[in-house]
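In response to reviewer comment 3 from the previous cycle, which asked for concrete evidence that the modeling workflow produces usable outputs, we include below a single protein chain processed end to end. The sequence was submitted unchanged, and the resulting structure tokens are shown without manual editing.
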Amino acid sequence: MVKYQGRAKSFLDWGERIVMIKQDGTILIHQPILREPANWQPSGSKITFTIDGEYLILNSINSNPVEKMKVYFRSISFILVTALRDRAKILVSGMENDLVNYILFNPDCIEEGFRIKKREKSVRSGSIDLFGYDKNHIPVVIEVKRGLANINAVHQLRMYVKDIKKDREDVNVRGILCAPRIPDMVKNLLTDYGLEWREIEYPTVLPDDHQKTLEEFSEKNVTTIL
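The workflow returned the following structure tokens.
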């Protein structure tokens, strides 16, 4: 059973669960289904144990903001205690930022002569992913989506184009939506608004710090043969 009091209050009645207490004070209480924990306490929480009659009680207090959680155990199926050693950092590929970087270093994937002037250009309605000029020096607004582009992306791009037009004397501003996949319905809406699209497939490659260069591989094998 779990009782929590802090920014809100919650009560979780009796049930069979997995309680994870990490080395930094983080606590996660998982029910038999779903990915997210039913209750949790953040890193830095102070943990103590007490016994009250037939119950073992886990007390967790977080100081900033003040949060208190009590976990009552009336039976325990198993306990595993260990110290984990892990200094690895997770590497993620295939995010929206990766596609932005790909276009940044390969501007010709938009069109020949396209020049990128600024990344994350702030305008009234938000932040433009990429802003540049085509070979005729016409301003180009690039909105990037990492997966399947939707209707909201069209409206977002349209607002950015309007913002740029308000700040310039010339009203000719191009808007291009870039994504790996763009449905026909989205393409039709872009056309209706006078906007463009590019379907761009880009490599999702994770860096491998352990992979040897060709030079390192050659040196090792030459040494072995000699």
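Residues 27 and 41 are 5 Å apart (CA to CA). We consider this sufficient to address the reviewer's concern, and the full set will be provided in the supplementary archive.
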